[in-house]
Amino acid sequence: MPGFFDTPIEYLKGVGPQRSALLNKQLNIFTFGDLIQHYPFRYEDRTRFYSIKELTEEMPFVQVKGKVTKKEIIGVGARKRLVAYLVDDTGEMELVWFQGIKWMLEKVQPGIEYVAFGKPSKYGKRFSIAHPEVEALTAKNEKGGFLQPVYPVTETLRKRYLDSKALAKLQQELLVLAKDKIHETLPHSIIKRFKLMDKRGAMLHIHFPENHQRLAEAQQRLKFEELFYIQLRLLKLKLVRKEKYRGQSFTDAALLTQFYNEHLPFQLTNAQKRVIKEIYADMRSGKQMNRLLQGDVGSGKTIVSFVCMLIALGGNAQCALMAPTEILAQQHFKTLSKFAEQMHITIALLTGSTKKTERKEIHQGLREGSLRVLIGTHALLEEEVQFKNLGLAIIDEQHRFGVAQRSKLWSKNKDMYPHVLVMTATPIPRTLAMTLYGDLDVSVIDELPSGRKPIKTIHKYDSHRLEVNGFLKQQIQAGRQVYIVYPLIEESEKLDLKHLMDGYESICRAFPNEAISIVHGKMKPDAKEYEMARFAKGETSIMVATTVIEVGVDVPNASVMVIENAERFGLSQLHQLRGRVGRGAEQSYCILMTSFKLSADSKKRIETMVRTNNGFEIAETDLQLRGPGDLMGTQQSGVLDLLIADLGKDTKLLQTARETAIEILENDPDLKHSDNQVIREQVARMRKSVVNWSRIS
Fold first, then answer.
1. Bridging pattern class, strands 558-563 and 120-123
2. Domain presence at residue 549
């Protein structure tokens, strides 16, 4: 039976069918529940008055009261404006209107006291507020007002008179009706333990807080609840999976031992050994493994994935590795083929460009079991790809694949789910990993192979171009190779391509004696491959490219990465690009070129890159600057549908929420205790929407 909060929004007084259609389309608000959870993103402080003497330009918004002494129209045509002079005991200021002059001329009268609200600016010695909100001083407003909520709205809504203020009125209307319908959604024990505000109070104070303290308490309560239910869902999934889904038990380590003793080309790091032990324990347990393997660029995840394959192959099963792009799939195939040949293991590559006859052979080999390892792109998910016994599915760069694609891989074994290893080279901040992959066990390779020197990162302005070119010449003379990368942003592909070609020409002029490769997204795959191969063989000393090389061939001799217009890249992308050098034993450099004018965020990004090579630290900063959606590329549907919590800022709260959820599930996995009844009911209610378990009840 639909409840009060499922009522369509059009039935709220002041909405109706037309406004309802707008709210549906522009803000995804369909019901009373959706509206009440459309939270303000900031608040304007109307709780106090400032004297004119106290005003500074740094203040975002201020509220002043005083008497209008006179008003006048100044200027003509486009420069025409209405100026009213407001005086209090400490000084005089101007209230200025460029639009709606006729209306304001009638509204504002000399000799009357007003309350004015807006952003103060200083011209000469005098402060002014452009287009302030003004109302006559009354007994009601002279003591100050309240914290005014400001709601996210779109330009279309503003034009249709549905701005933040109009939404606030609708919220007021709804809260009167909803007051007695808001039920508690957390157990009393949790509320008491963490001194949380009750749900009803939190919903009232999040929209119309009495003061700053009440607002902070409401935010704390709603954020905790949201994160708690997300974690509870993920942990429950993990529990169910571990109990319910059996996995093949692989106990034969003979192949692994043989490879380790006879063919391993280098010493594994302690971090790699630790991770292999964790994975082996999972694969022999008889429970299905679901593990996330995180490691920074160059930390050696590929070799770890091959060792894990050997564990499954030793148990007479098959393995699959799925990569998001053809280039990456080919790279994996190339790297792993060498090892597979040494071990006499059959391996094949399946992508969109695999020829029909080859495909047939691959399909047959998989069904018969003679083909043991398959590397490929999402072509692996096609219906005709059927394994005899898929024991291990490895997914590289997980954030590019949705959960639906992952589950298609699981179903490739009819008898028993394969073990799943998810790999990512993009270090994920802890908060994000807990929220996105809270249902997976996590292994981290937090150590780079020995002998690797940390990459030196330097920031240079465009004015230092000659100095940078001189350094590049020295490096090339010493036998090194150089990458020069230009940004490519889809919306302005033509402009960026011109930028790249201009850059290429100026590099040709600066390095007339050097062979130069160029690679960009508009080239045909064959031409791209040819240029990359020339660079890899050392036939060219400079590679001018767009970000297509972010995932690409490893060239140990390439020791310098120059990133042009570095301010146009996100942090994680800069870090990925930097990881293309430093693969050999020589000292490597990353030079970030920018213009002199940088925004505060750009400065922070550049400073972070220069300061640290730690991918996890970089990812944390990136999360704070850009938010989770950008960081993960394709958003995981539902999981990041956060209404109020912020993963960049609410780290501690997330940790507390997760620990609380773990504690509850350990003591009461089926939520049968009377104290957990509230949780059980909330979970049952939320199953209907599944998206966000903290949604209003």
1. unpaired
2. yes
